[in-house]
Write a structure and sequence with these properties.
alpha/beta
Length: 164
């Protein structure tokens, strides 16, 4: 019985590792997903169709999450350090929640930032974020550089976008 339990644990660990590596492989190049940018004139955005001009930050968030709000404050505070980066803040929430969040944090003044809704959950299905804020950083070649789970030091995020 003891050997059977050990065998089961080994198989479970292998399956989890295989699942994670398969998921990482799927997002190592910028995958195809859709963002509905309801707060500006962009409408529907497919990030994988964007020209490869600069690093890209995707932040999956919940407008009600304290850690997401704190991360957003830091992004706004360090807007100049992130000026050469395209930032997409993505949530799966109501239009009114997004508008309130957008206005409350003064996101309109950041020209390189798009706030959008994951209406069909395509971002969520691609990345399967296990915590918010979830941050994925891609370089100019649309290759995954770094993933952060939970609130992250803004200096780390800025460093991850440098020289990409």
């Amino acid at each position: 019985m003891r050997h059977l339990s050990l065998y089961f644990v080994v198989i479970l660990l292998f399956a989890c590792r295989y699942s994670n590596s398969k998921r990482f492989s799927a997002i190592s190049k910028l995958p195809d997903f859709e963002i509905v940018s309801m707060l500006d004139t962009l409408g529907h955005v497919w990030p994988d169709k964007l020209p490869a001009a600069c690093p890209i930050i995707f932040m999956y968030f919940d407008p009600e999450c304290d850690h997401c709000q704190e991360e957003t404050k830091q992004i706004v505070k360090h807007a100049a350090d992130l000026a050469g980066t395209k930032i997409f803040m993505i949530a799966h929430t109501s239009y009114s929640s997004l508008v309130k969040f957008y206005q409350e944090f003064g996101l309109r003044k950041m020209q390189n930032l798009v706030v959008g809704n994951d209406t069909d959950m395509s971002f969520y299905r691609c990345f399967v974020p296990s915590a918010v804020p979830f941050i994925a950083i891609y370089n100019k070649k649309k290759e995954l550089v770094k993933i952060y789970l939970g609130q992250t030091d803004i200096a780390s995020i800025i460093r991850s976008t440098r020289d990409l």
